[in-house]
Amino acid sequence: MNVASDYMLTLEDKVYSANKTSLDLLRQIRQDEEEIAHLKSYILDLKSRIAIYLPVKGCPIDLKVAEYINNYPDRAKLKIMFMRESSGVYEFGSKRIQVEVIQNKIKIRVGGGNMSIDEFIDQYTPVELEK
Hints:
4 helices, five-stranded antiparallel β-sheet, alpha+beta, 131 residues, Metal Transport, Frataxin, Chain A
């Protein structure tokens, strides 16, 4: 009887220890989840403040595009990024465009003419590009 009683006490101690470890681990998981949520929020905040476009070295067109994007006042409007394919050729959303710098101004080739980058962004909103 004493052996069985000692065995049951040992098992109860192990169960208690396991339950305590489980609670400690759950507490740690909650703290980690809170820290992850905080870090995600912090990253989103940093992304909204930090320059988000790095130009290709030696490409004056890309340098001008990067300058424009990184200094754009309404970042929320630039949900679709310019992705450089080659010198002067970019993808904006699903649209392939040609970009030129004329008299130190960025021009987008549209149809048979050119449009300023401001006009282009105003005209081609993300909703229109996804159609």
